[in-house]
Known about the structure:
Layout (H helix, E strand, L loop, with lengths): L2 H6 L7 H10 L9 H4 L5 H17 L3 E2 L5 H26 L4 H4 L1 H4 L1 H4 L1 H11 L2 E2 L7 H25 L2
Antiparallel strand pairs: 1-2
Amino acid sequence: MNVLRTFLRSCIWLWVPPLVASFAFWPKLGSAYQPEFFWRDIPVLLGMVENVARIATISFSVIMLMSWRTPRQRLGLWIYVIGISLYVACQWIIVLNPTGWWATSALGFLAPAYTPAIWLLGIGMMGNQSMVGRLARPHFYFWGLAGIFLAAHISHAYLVFTRL
């Protein structure tokens, strides 16, 4: 497999839609989601774990090769698409009605933090082959890193919600 083809099959490309959505909605989500409020009074250890796990999860996806050959991988693609759709929808609803039930409830406020679990599951299902020959089942490592990130990210968002 040539280098360009390998690079194009990297799961890192699956991060483009959620990152574009995050940067598109972030300025419009309201003051509670802005860095000066969102990161205020967050325990240092929690912030470090969240950021290191975020970087590690994204970085690890570079060596994972995506594929849609097996039924499991195709299911992973559907889970990813559904997860991205929910991730975008939950933020869009907050932007459209920032004082509504969804935006002011724990379920709605935390949705941008917990819906990534769906599309991260999909990435792991599609990326079950590694560029590193001796690394078997890379999706298990990916899900482990993603789980740490999600636990820290959801905890962080919950702490912010309790301050509202």
